[in-house]
Amino acid sequence: SLADPIRVYEGAAGLQRHVRTEFPSGQATYYDGPAGQERRIRHEWSNGEIRFFEGPQGQERKVRSTWSGGETHFFTGSQGQERKVRVEWASGQRRFFKGPMGAERKFMHEKPNGEATYFDGPKGQEHKVRTQWIDENGVYRTEFFDGPKGEERKVSELATKGDHMRLATFVGPKGSERRHVAFMGNGPKMNVDFSEGPASGNNVTHQRQLRDNGEVRFYDGDIDHPLLRRVVTPDGEVRFYTGDVPHHETLERVV
């Protein structure tokens, strides 16, 4: 009958074992094991999905699902309680999940270049909280975010390599974050930068820097080309500078 499933067997007479069931919809279930102990190992769908199972007869649990496009889902848990723990794509990207079956939430997404983004929140509301990677110069970088899904704004970033460390904080809404305070360390030494202004073009200014030796340096210009204008030393001396080329300013007078 074209309307009923077809059970397929193999083996000599009296020892036949069930190896496959074909359905009119185009689906098929495959089995393995000796006669009387056949266990389900795979189910193929007409849309290209293939589900794989493990476990003894009657306790088969889903462990993996694949699609023709290269997407693979991995599961763990007993039969009927299988929960998704990982998704892999042909591109090399991987996504990891936590939580019970039906409520699995995304908590980490990993790219082929090693960049990893972490998330928090219930299923469907996962918001980005952290992204970390190692850049081409071997610097370990981490960006931290705050805000609900789709509105995450960067609040700080950390860069480290050996004894060198830089920690910067940011203020402003998503897409308009501007650097506020930056801590720069080299071993036991630490400098602190303060910036101000809107995050629009080059309007953010490098306002001042508190150095490890107690000096306070004041700047003008945009964040990428700060121009030194004044230095106040711990003993009260004030040095004034002029010039329009960063790191080549001219000492103008000393008070």
Quick structural summary:
With 255 residues, the protein is mainly beta. The protein has no helices and 22 strands. It has strands at 6-10, 17-22, 28-32, 39-44, 50-54, 61-66, 72-76, 83-88, 94-98, 105-110, 116-120, 127-134, 140-146, 153-161, 164-171, 178-186, 189-196, 205-210, 216-220, 227-232, 238-242, 250-254.
What does this molecule look like?
The protein has no helices and 22 strands. A hairpin with a 6-residue loop joins strand 1 (6-10) and strand 2. With 255 residues, it is mostly beta strands. It has a 22-stranded antiparallel sheet, with no helix packed on it.
Number of helices, counting only DSSP H or I runs of 4 residues or more: 0
Number of strands: 22
Helix content: under 10%
Q: Radius of gyration, Cα only, in angstroms?
A: 31 Å
Strand content: over 45%
Shape: rod-shaped
The overall pLDDT, averaged over residues, is 91
Largest sheet: 22 strands, antiparallel
Termini separation comes to: 103 Å
**H/E element sequence:** EEEEEEEEEEEEEEEEEEEEEE
Query: Which ranges are low-confidence, i.e. pLDDT below 50, for 5 or more consecutive residues?
Result: none
Briefly note the structural class of the backbone: mainly beta
